[in-house]
Amino acid sequence: QVTSFQGVAVRSLSTSSPHDHPEHGRLVYKGNLAKTVLGVKFFSYSTSIFNLFMMPYIMLKSGIGVESLLVQAAFYGLIGIFTFVTPVTLHILTKGYVIRLYYKDEVDTYTAITYNAILAEKVTVFHQKDVKIPDITKMFTTFYAKTKSMLVNPTLFPNPQDYNHLMGYDKSSFLKFEDLEE
């Protein structure tokens, strides 16, 4: 592999692809919404924290303490929904979104990288035999890795054979052409 560094050719002695990871294997999928998911979750968390710190000030300045109990309950409920329910809902909807998927051919294992609740990358390692396709199409699930739901976009796999192997389509139980010849 030859790269240019300020007009001078530099030869790299590395034999691995830039998409290889020494621990996880070969990169077979990269989600295009990874930065968007991270940004939306971060924005939701930051507004929730802002709400928590501003609530005492707002309550003190607005005089909501002298209103009726029903108005207080409605006000606190509305603030609670935006403060706690929105980030939890966003996390539930996006926790299975795969931002990167690696494959190790030698041991037939996949490593899925997702975001956890505190916006850190979470690693899930599974074998191809652990992949289950849901019987009924679900909105935020392409497949299950053991019991964890995962969401990938099949069109973002650079090599369609990688997606077929992941889903088990290459091990089809259909009659093969070679079987028909016999």
From TrEMBL:
Stored InterPro entries: TMEM70, TMEM70/TMEM186/TMEM223
Cleavable signal peptide: none
Chain residue ranges for the region called Disordered: 1-24
GO CC terms, sorted: mitochondrial membrane
Stated family: Belongs to the TMEM70 family.
Gene behind the chain: Tmem70
Compositional bias annotation for Polar residues: 1-17
Protein name: TMM70 protein
Any GO BP annotation: mitochondrial proton-transporting ATP synthase complex assembly
Membrane-spanning residues: 42-60, 72-94
Entries under Pfam families matching the protein: TMEM70
Coiled coil residues, start to end: none
Keyword set, alphabetical order: Membrane, Transmembrane, Transmembrane helix
